[in-house]
Amino acid sequence: MSSTAGQVIKCRAAVAWEAGKPLVIEEVEVAPPQANEVRIKILFTSLCHTDVYFWEAKGQTPLFPRIFGHEAGGIVESVGEGVTELQPGDHVLPVFTGECKECRHCKSEESNMCDLLRINTDRGVMLNDGQTRFSKNGQPIYHFVGTSTFSEYTVVHVGCVAKINPAAPLDKVCILSCGICTGLGATINVAKPQKGSSIAIFGLGAVGLAAAEGARIAGAARIIGVDLNSSRFEEAKKFGVNEFVNPKDYDKPVQEVIAEMTNGGVDRSVECTGSIQAMISAFECVHDGWGVAVLVGVPNKDDAFKTHPANFLNERTLKGTFYGNYKPRSDLPAVVEKYMNKELELEKFITHSVSFSEINKAFEYMLQGKSIRCIIRME
Ligand SMILES: NC(=O)c1ccc[n+]([C@@H]2O[C@H](COP(=O)([O-])OP(=O)(O)OC[C@H]3O[C@@H](n4cnc5c(N)ncnc54)[C@H](O)[C@@H]3O)[C@@H](O)[C@H]2O)c1
Ligand SMILES: [Zn+2]
Ligand SMILES: [Zn+2]
């Protein structure tokens, strides 16, 4: 038992008081974990686009004051009632979507969309009592996607906590909490390219580069990167992308360009842009007979996917995925092991590192398009 178990902890957290305004490092109070909750000491966290979208709150429900952050690594400080598989000292990754292990999704081999703990970006409170565990001078501070990792301590539902190998460096594996697993799993778990095959990756941001890393691991021979921004291409070479297409360089649809390059189409494609046009192109650029396209990007509210049904009759498959189809508690430990035995490379995703007090710099790097991942060191 730690000396702080059962007590309120005072610690530093980066609080977003208002949309789009720099975060402020404040001393906050973190209540003890309740039933089925875990309090975690965060050691490293990183910034993902989703934090930025909800901090900007353009088009999203604004909820402030709030503590953002959902990619992190830490150590369990204490556990609430009913938590049996975790104990103080365990090394863990909190994840924005959970696995209760009891619902029909958790029991299905095919799904990771837990009924109880599926991502909910509008909820700013804990499920147990509908309250927050963070406060400052009695004022509640809202949670974000059940993780709120921009705090030295946070409280998370046990179903959103993956216990990992304690030998794994948390300053590297913390990036597996969201974007990297999303892209990696989209390729490895869903697109499943065969050794020697061809694959097109649409969008070479963090998620697309992780999809490319999955293709490299799977042994795909031709990894074609597609992006409207050619400045992404140089970096993408490190991720095994070996051919590049900028749709702007052609006066015909990019799916036709890719079909010509590959004698009829790629074996697989993974869309990591959020652009509806790229989603349609990603589907229409796969080969008939066996081609599989996987959509990862989050579309706009009013988007509609339009393609000729003959594309399906010609035996192309369209799929989508959430968090790379990984179940956080069951599957993340093995992804960490892939990194430990040097199959998966994580260092190349980490372009920047700042101390916690400089957290706003991480936002600047991302907004300026300079960073893939920026690690924020809590100590
Ligand atoms: N499904 C999930 O579980 C999940 C999880 C995390 C992120 N995402 C989504 O994945 C997408 C990618 O995330 P990211 O952080 O890598 O984003 P990012 O903005 O860093 O990268 C997107 C890239 O796509 C390129 N792009 C945009 N439109 C394009 C087009 N029409 N054709 C080709 N390239 C185009 C951009 O130039 C950019 O380089 C986003 O939509 C994000 O919301 C999904
Ligand atoms: Zn479940
Ligand atoms: Zn994320």
From TrEMBL:
It comes from Ziziphus jujuba. The keyword Zinc applies. It holds the Pfam family ADH_N. It comes from the Eukaryota. SUPFAM superfamilies: GroES-like, NAD(P)-binding Rossmann-fold domains. InterPro entries: ADH-like_C, ADH-like_N, ADH_Zn_CS, GroES-like_sf, NAD(P)-bd_dom_sf. Gene3D superfamilies: Medium-chain alcohol dehydrogenases, catalytic domain, NAD(P)-binding Rossmann-like Domain. This is Alcohol dehydrogenase 1. Residues 35-164 form the Alcohol dehydrogenase-like N-terminal domain. Homodimer. Its cofactor is Zn(2+). Belongs to the zinc-containing alcohol dehydrogenase family. Residues 206-337 form the Alcohol dehydrogenase-like C-terminal domain. Keywords: Metal-binding, Oxidoreductase, Zinc.
